[in-house]
Write a structure and sequence with these properties.
Number of strands of chain A: 13
Strand content of chain B: 35-45%
Radius of gyration of chain B: 30 Å
Structural class of chain B: alpha+beta
Number of helices of chain B: 13
Largest interface: A-B, 20 and 26 residues
Largest sheet of chain B: 9 strands, mixed
Helix content of chain B: 10-25%
Oligomer: heterodimer
Shape of chain A: elongated
Distance between the termini of chain A: 49 Å
Number of strands of chain B: 36
Radius of gyration of chain A: 27 Å
Number of helices of chain A: 9
Chain lengths: 362, 632
């Protein structure tokens, strides 16, 4: 969920300081509305804070004539290690500026802010890399991050409003309008994402909730498989498929599900596999799939596996398929998974383990 | 059945002679006897039946110092026309060199009770010996007259065998059950008190009693034996055997003595081997040359006349004549290999038997073939000198696993070893798409071991031109009729190397180069091999002879497409064998697919035959290779 390019123009415009005939007076842009800033950061999933930081550091550079390089600060929110050094340095520089210009100095909770900023950053990183059910944690972290930016902005506002030799210039109507438009647009996207990733899965009516080791048995298709992890929920037909599945399951990771399909004997192991692989190739490019066929438990029954993996917007995505032939039809169990890297790997192993144990029964 | 019938008629027409006054056969036919009355009485009370019934088989054997007299009494009942068609012709095997037959009764009683005597002038004798085995058997064929539904055949005859004319031990085998049901089996043997005879009975239905040099056996209501697609009935039928040999060492001594007679004159062998050794340096090459000489330069002629039915002719005479049968060639080869300081020895082979346990008592009568074995570097090699195309590193396919008796003193019969994989084929295929969407296929097939010998046997009689036509026809039948392959065959006349068949085939454009590619390549060679591996037995275990297949296929998409979908990797592992396939993408437009199928030699039980066939079907169903490509 990237911000539109116009946002870059917006923040850069904040750096365009109008030269004054009296050099000791600095003309700076009037501070943002706190509410506007909070929601811009929140709706942009924190990306707006990168632009905001470049603008504020630029102002500090003008105020203190220091050697800071504003554009480098764009990357500070993105790299956790950099923050360990950057936040204390920024807060210190802000304090000095406040002191030099005679504004009220930020004393209370300064260290607390630095600590909280670092913890929030860690949480976002960890939720992206480790936690399986990371969507809720991620949204919560972004909200906290927006709040922290708001606190920091208040200190910059205090400096600009109370600091000597600083004149605040109103922002142009165009810029304000653009900000409103961006806010509304990103807000819609944000709410849609919340709905898709958090609200919708929660809304799915659970038919059955499975624990680790529970077995799913389809008495019509005479097929069964175990769940290799808890948190799987059987949901109504049509929740994920176009209504043609025989059973559907929502996974413990937000973007994971399993679908059970029946194919008649006009299909084959190859045709089912080829259909999935061709679809995946159409979406994510060629040669992303592997298929392997084996005998089940040394018996003369075949099981076919297909796995296709690619990345979408930097995050891994995969489909995993097991097909068996059973009593006059083929049964296909299709799993799909999207998550950040580590949870993807962990959950992929679980799904593959489940698919390997798809069996028919009498 | 029809084919067999016509083949039999043709055989009779071509090679038989009318034997009204054959020197071995005497006719003293009569139209009344207790046996005929017994048959007539049975006919009246026969009742409802639907298949041929041997009402009586009586075998009465009397052995004295001079001869062995065997009296046969046989009564048949044929309730249907089909049973007449099937069993209406009587046959009797006999040894022309030492056996005389006297017929006392040979007639038919038709359904109305009328008697139809057999006319001796219509008797035929055919030679039923098979190629490459030694035997002195002839077959008397009697097409019985006047048979209809409800009719009977009555036969009574005597066989007399002169003991002094027997080259080996005497023995007699009665197969208790047969392809038809049998109401009564009555067998008796009497021998001189001064002599010892030995017997064994493997039938639970035949009860036998030995008392004072007399053995009497009888059985009633014997079930018919169920024939099967691939089974040697000698291995499975319950049998009674009576013979004069005490142990296998005695059989071995007697057979060795006969063989050593042939080795008494080996003139010419030393000189022959000097020439061979001059032309070859390595011992392996010398063995190959000796094998080649015995197999190819000595032509096969069956020479089982009196005195040489089981005794080879002297080596010097075989070398001089340049012809001989299996035992003659074996004696020559033993002499040649011994000149190379190899401890070569002859081995008797029972080509019709694989079950050692069914050799119930020691006798040479089971064996009908001879080969040569020798140890080398801790391994035993066996050469069939009648096989012109199997190298000495492999045992000829037709005798693998058969019962053998090495003539090495006190050695018991055992099974000849068998290759774990009798049929070995490797196929290398290169498929190159051209710019128009056609394909050039470069194919290399490599046949190893006995499969190479089999292919050489197919090709050598044909010659180069006929072979090329045959290869083309095979290719068209199995692969495609839409192309015209060019063949190159190498090593056809060799014995010890793989046989290679290369071909280049250009297929006209079939793929739309502007569209995405969806291509399936059927592994026709694998499919063809699998077809021949399916087992068909219904009642008895069947041997899977072992099959190893390796295929490497390289597919070049010619810059027209980039691969978007690879074929499936296969990992089928089962107790019957395995199929594994690995796929390697060399680049976006070239991929290699390697397939290996291993089905080791194994006896498949009757319960497992459907499972084994299903295993073959699974391999068959996954033999094709399917890929997808997107336009560049």
């Amino acid at each position: 969920m990237r911000q539109p390019d116009s946002e870059t123009t917006l923040e850069q415009s904040e750096l365009e300081i109008t030269p004054s005939s009296k050099p000791e007076i600095l003309n700076l842009a009037k501070p943002n509305s706190s509410i506007l800033l909070f929601f811009l950061v929140l709706f942009s999933f924190g990306i707006y804070s990168c632009f905001w930081l470049v603008a504020r550091v630029g102002e500090l550079k003008l105020i203190r004539q220091n050697s800071m390089t504003p554009f480098l600060w764009f990357f500070v929110p993105l790299f956790f290690i950099a923050q360990l050094f950057a936040w204390p340095a920024l807060v210190l520089e802000l304090k000095r500026a406040q002191k030099e210009r005679g504004a009220a100095v930020w004393n209370a909770w300064r260290g607390g802010w630095v600590a909280l900023a670092i913890i929030t950053s860690i949480t976002v990183n960890v939720s992206e890399q480790v936690l399986a059910n990371d969507v809720g944690v991620f949204f919560m972290s972004v909200a906290i991050w927006a709040f922290l930016i708001l606190i920091l902005d208040r200190q910059f506002t205090r400096l600009k409003k109370e600091g000597e030799g600083i004149s605040l210039q109103p922002r142009s109507l165009v810029i304000r309008t653009v900000k409103i438009v961006v806010l509304i647009t990103s807000g819609v996207v944000f709410l849609l994402a919340i709905y898709e990733l958090v609200a919708k899965p929660l809304q799915l009516e659970s038919v059955v909730v499975y624990s680790d080791g529970d077995h799913y048995k389809n008495t019509k298709l005479k097929v069964r498989f175990p769940f290799a992890q808890g948190g799987w929920r059987q949901v109504p037909i049509g929740s994920y498929s176009d209504g043609t599945a025989e059973a559907e399951f929502s996974g413990p990771v937000a973007a994971s599900y399993l679908l059970v399909f029946r194919h008649d004997l006009s299909s084959s192991f190859s045709s089912i596999a080829n259909f999935r692989m061709d679809n995946f190739a159409a979406d994510y490019g060629p040669n992303k799939c592997k298929q392997i066929r084996a005998l089940m438990d040394g018996q003369l029954e075949m099981i076919s596996f297909v796995s296709c993996e690619a990345s979408s917007l930097g995050a891994p995505i995969g489909i995993f398929v097991a097909v068996i032939k059973n009593q006059g039809h083929y049964v296909e169990v299709l799993g799909e998974l999207t998550a950040s890297r580590l949870p993807y790997r962990l959950n992929k192993r679980k799904i593959e383990k489940m698919l390997k144990q798809v069996r028919s029964y009498e | 059945m029809n084919r067999f019938f016509w083949t039999l008629l043709l055989s009779i027409g071509l090679s038989s002679s009318v034997v009204a006054k054959h020197q071995n056969i005497e006719w003293k036919l009569r139209n009344s006897s207790p046996l005929i009355e017994r048959a007539a009485a049975y006919q009246k009370l026969a009742g409802e039946q639907n298949e041929a019934n041997q009402v009586l088989l009586s075998v009465d054997v009397e052995i004295n110092a001079i001869e062995i007299r065997t009296r046969y009494k046989i009564i048949w009942y044929f309730p249907t026309k089909e049973s007449v068609q099937k069993y209406g012709t009587e046959t009797k095997y006999f040894n022309e060199l030492n056996e005389r037959l006297t017929f006392y009764t040979a007639l038919t009683i038709d359904s109305k009770g009328k008697k139809h005597p057999f006319k001796p002038s219509s008797a035929q004798i055919i030679d039923s010996d098979s190629y490459t085995t030694f035997s002195d058997q002839k077959e008397l064929v009697m097409a019985m007259p006047g048979l209809d539904s409800g009719s009977m055949i009555v036969l009574e005859f005597e066989s007399r065998v002169a003991r002094e004319k027997l080259e080996v031990d005497w023995s007699n085998i009665i197969y208790v059950n047969n392809l038809f049901k049998r109401d009564n089996l009555e067998v008796s043997y009497r021998w001189p008190k001064k002599e010892s005879f030995f017997w064994s009975n493997s039938s639970e239905h035949l009860s036998c009693h030995e008392l004072a040099s007399t053995l009497t056996c009888s059985a009633k209501r014997l079930r018919k034996y169920k024939g099967d697609y691939a089974v040697s009935w000698r291995d499975v039928l319950p049998q009674l055997i009576v013979g004069e040999m005490k142990d296998w060492a005695a059989v071995n001594r007697r057979a060795s003595k006969a063989f050593n007679l042939a080795m008494s004159d080996v003139t010419g062998v030393k000189q022959l081997m000097v020439e061979i050794e001059q032309k070859n340096e390595k011992l392996e090459d010398k063995i190959t040359a000796a094998h080649r000489f015995a197999a190819r330069d000595i032509r096969y002629v069956s020479m089982s006349e009196y005195g040489n039915t089981v005794t080879p002719h002297q080596v010097a005479s075989v070398l001089e004549a340049r012809y001989g049968d299996c035992k003659d060639k074996s004696a020559l080869l033993v002499a040649m290999l011994r000149e190379l300081d190899l401890n070569a020895y002859p081995v008797l082979v029972a080509t019709n038997r694989s079950e050692v346990n069914n050799l119930l008592i020691p006798s040479m009568a089971y064996f009908n073939h001879m080969i040569v074995c020798f140890p080398l570097n801790g391994q035993t090699y066996c050469i069939d000198a009648t096989d012109q195309n199997t190298g000495w590193n492999y045992i000829s396919s037709w005798i693998q696993g058969k019962v053998q008796l090495p003539l090495l003193g006190e050695v018991l019969p055992s099974n000849l070893s068998s290759n774990k994989f009798r049929w070995e084929l490797a196929v290398d295929t290169e498929l190159n798409f051209d710019q128009l969407g056609g394909v050039e296929e470069k194919l290399k097939r490599r046949f190893s071991g006995v499969y190479a010998a089999y292919m050489r046997n197919q090709m050598q009689p044909k010659g180069e031109e006929e072979t090329s036509k045959w290869l083309k026809k095979t290719y068209r039948d199995l692969v495609s009729s839409s192309a015209d392959p060019k063949f190159e065959v190498s090593s056809v006349d060799e014995m010890d190397v793989d046989l290679k068949i290369k071909s280049v085939t250009k297929y006209p454009p079939f793929a739309d180069v502007a569209d995405k590619l969806s291509y399936t390549e059927y592994d026709s060679w694998l499919k063809d091999e699998l077809d021949s591996l399916f087992l068909r037995n219904e009642y008895y275990p069947q041997l899977n002879q072992g099959f190893r297949y390796k295929a490497k296929m390289s597919i070049h998409l010619g810059g027209l497409w980039r691969g978007s979908r690879e074929t499936a990797e296969i990992d089928l592992v089962h107790r019957f064998g395995s199929m594994k396939r690995n796929v390697t993408s060399m680049s976006q437009e070239k991929m290699e697919v390697e397939t290996e199928v291993l089905i080791p030699r194994q006896l498949i039980s009757i319960e497992d035959i459907p499972k084994f066939n299903k295993f073959l079907s699974l391999i068959n169903n996954h033999s094709s290779i399917s890929i997808g490509g997107l336009t560049q």
